[in-house]
Amino acid sequence: MTQSHSLTLQNLTIDLDTFYLHDINLDIAAGEYFAILGPTGAGKTVLLEAIAGLHMLKKGTLLLHGEDVTNCPPETRGIGFVYQDYMLFPHMNVAENIAFGLKLRKAASQVIKTKVNHIGKLLNIDHLLHRAPISLSGGEKQRVALARALVIEPQVLLLDEPLSALDPSTREQLQEELRHLHNRLNTTIIHVTHDFEEAQALGDRIAIMNQGTIAQVGTPEEIFRTPASEFIANFVGMRNIFKGTTRPNKDNQENTKATIAFQDIEITALTTLKGQVHCTIRPEDITLSTDILSPGQINCFEGKITKITPRGAIAYLTVAVPPTFTGLLTMQTLKAMALQEGTRVTLSFKPAAVHVFK
Amino acid sequence: MRSLFANKTLGVFTLLSILLILFIACPLAGTIISTSPALFLQTLQDPEVREAINLTFSASLMATGLTLILGVPLAYLLARVSFPGKWLVEGIVDVPVVVPHSAAGIALLMVFGRQTLLGKAFGLLGIQFVSARPGIIAAMLFVSLSFLVNAAREGFEAIDPRLERVARTLGASPWQVFWHISLPLAWRNILSGMILMWARGLSEFGAVVILAYHPMVAPVLLYERFQAFGLRYALPVATLMILICLLAFITLRVIANRPNRKDNVHDPIP
Fold it and tell me: What ipTM score was computed for the predicted complex, to two decimals?
């Protein structure tokens, strides 16, 4: 990835009747695959449309390769856009849809033909060129929409939930192809989604959006490991999110170890945060055993399995201490340990496995 | 049919519906049946009738054409833009439907009459409204423009605004978006609106008769024949008008029911 910035958003603020975006700041590198993740209604689509130039900004600046395009109309920006529900022009066939941008650029008909065929091959839709959009499957429509946006060789490609309307197998396939296309064309891509796994699989970096603001920006690993807030932790599918109060620790030499008390238990973690905090422990960091609890050991609790939820080769185990923890075991281990709902187990985790945030 | 009558509510509704349909169908059919074929053929060849029919068709077509140029942009604005006083504009577009058409004729006379400012101004250009073709067109336009404007508006409203947005990102200016996306997608609604407006214009009597008794449009001729010669001579003209309107509506249905390619057209976002 090069360091030059493809797209810079500075204090971008939008006030529509139904949506409000507040002080959005983002730097997206040229050639980066950037995911924007957030729940429905977070303002993700509005943000993309604003980048494309489809909404008037109340405040802020938008730089495209260092050039201020804040007041440029969308047709001059060279930013491609793909909507979740394709938005293919119903009165044109596939080839006409793809050629639309080229025709507006007054490209020679031979050039148009070559480019349409080329992009058609790239996206495996060259056999559909004469078909009407209505006769295509969802996956095919989305390929056409991608081809239509890519054929004009956009500087930035904006994808608004491009995979959300597709069935799981098509989604997986197209996700793979998006990665492939990105590697091959090296276009800067901003991909909006509400699915963390999709963002994680595709994004070099992820921005989490909530209620019209950017809540956190980071690599998928950073966001998953160290969510900046309870909302993000919940949204990325974190389990074991607890809220408590830190207490000074007796044997705290480095001033990094703290005891967090909540409900009837105390958790030891490595943190310098004080007062009211949240903490999370990833299920795979929790060790489960049927051994008897040795008294006084830190981060070691006894509880009863209340629920076992199999997920393919693994299973989530809900253990009521209380509070309720969620652990993770392979199905194989689960069988070997002969665990069932109602079994009493001991769960433990290292202080370093506890992520603490405000 | 069996299941329809098994349900008592639907059975009662069906009987009531039949009454209403017969109320419309019987007079129309009766008119057509009572017309003597010989007299009908003779009427078709009557120069006065032909002239009136020609005038009616062409004047209504002209009114429709004018509304196409002026009313389709209005329909697009109403479908896409919210502006202060929009309710008032919408009201003005709909008012001609409810105003008594003779009152509409009087209102037009107040603006386009020979002694009015506008009437005089047009007079200088050699355009006269009273007892002249432009008056007929004005009267038809006034009473029937709502049909085209509202149909076009519905057509534009049914286009997902994101189709237009995507076109912008692909390099189309707002003008190009209108010509390449919005207009072709709303075209069927516009065409239906045109046929409806044209047919409504054809049948206009009240407003036209006040602005221009002469030259005579078909409904005025019909009225005159009824007054001067009686029912027997009015019948063939009435039949002719009814048949023409039936044809217009059959065409309308054919257009409306043609298989649709608009898979991406959504209901307007609330």
Answer: 0.81
